[in-house]
């Protein structure tokens, strides 16, 4: 099981994986970043422990570490215990949730592999906001979407804030990166997918009539504000809109995604 290690000195190098998260956040594209996966809070840590991501260590106040005793029973990793003050000095801010875990990244899934084993997919373009991205993954998990394809302009779904907002579900919904955009959408068509672009354009088909619950379907979702690019919409077989009352022209992308995912499962 995870072995308890007491930490009394904030400069202890054994907790360097958890250090200065407010500044570097361990993203590979930021100074000091290492690309580690970071989970916050008991529920999200439990989901990390149940995921394919190899856990390196836990760090928390004693009460939270003890709450995770059953979930960590099969792990051979350190569980660092400190008081809230020492933990805040290490992390760089006071952590209300009281516990963190870090893991290495799992092997990257190739788009063809994900497409080949899926029937319902979300395809994202320009989703740069980490909270929107995390919320989309949470909605995808809740509504039975098989995976997420990340197109141009998307942020890292394993960024700490995205993991937190997704409540750890980004760790269970498989995702892959489309490196040539929108050319790689051809992979979907070659595998029998119907591609639907979600857009508020008046000439698009109503979601009620789009029959997204039939066959293999991939739905394109774009960023708030500009939405999908013209190139992405033109690459789809059908443009689809969510009917709304007069005076409201769009929804938060995570909300729009949830409504569309619900239509895709035919519920």
Automatic annotation (TrEMBL):
InterPro entries: Alpha/beta_knot_MTases (IPR029028), Ribosomal_eL30-like_sf (IPR029064), rRNA_Methyltransferase (IPR051259), SpoU_MeTrfase (IPR001537), tRNA_m1G_MTases_N (IPR029026). Keywords: Methyltransferase, Transferase. GO terms for biological process: methylation; RNA processing. Residues 122-261 form the tRNA/rRNA methyltransferase SpoU type domain. Pfam families: SpoU_methylase. One of its GO terms (molecular function) is RNA binding. This is tRNA G18 (Ribose-2'-O)-methylase SpoU. It comes from Saccharopolyspora spinosa.
């Amino acid at each position: 099981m995870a072995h308890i290690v007491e930490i009394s000195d904030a400069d202890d190098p054994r907790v360097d994986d958890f250090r200065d998260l407010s500044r570097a956040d361990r993203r590979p594209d930021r100074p000091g970043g290492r690309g580690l996966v970071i989970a916050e809070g008991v529920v999200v840590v439990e989901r990390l422990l149940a995921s394919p991501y190899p856990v390196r260590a836990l760090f928390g106040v004693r009460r939270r570490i003890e709450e995770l005793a059953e979930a960590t029973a099969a792990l051979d990793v350190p569980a660092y215990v400190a008081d809230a003050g020492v933990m805040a000095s290490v992390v760089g801010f006071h952590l209300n949730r009281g516990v963190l875990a870090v893991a290495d990244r799992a092997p990257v899934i190739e788009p063809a592999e994900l497409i080949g084993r899926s029937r319902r997919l979300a395809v994202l373009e320009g989703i740069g906001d980490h909270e929107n991205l995390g919320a989309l993954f949470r909605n995808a998990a809740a509504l039975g979407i098989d995976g997420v394809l990340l197109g141009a302009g998307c942020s890292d779904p394993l960024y700490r804030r995205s993991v937190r907002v997704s409540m750890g579900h980004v760790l269970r919904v498989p995702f892959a990166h489309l490196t040539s955009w929108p050319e790689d959408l051809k992979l979907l068509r070659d595998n029998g997918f119907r591609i639907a672009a979600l857009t508020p354009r008046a000439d698009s088909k109503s979601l009620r009539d789009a029959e997204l619950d039939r066959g293999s379907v991939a739905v394109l979702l774009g960023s708030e504000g500009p939405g999908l690019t013209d190139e992405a919409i033109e690459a789809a077989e059908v443009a689809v809109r969510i009917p709304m009352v007069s005076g409201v022209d769009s929804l938060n992308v995570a909300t729009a995604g949830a409504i569309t995912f619900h239509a895709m499962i035919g519920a």
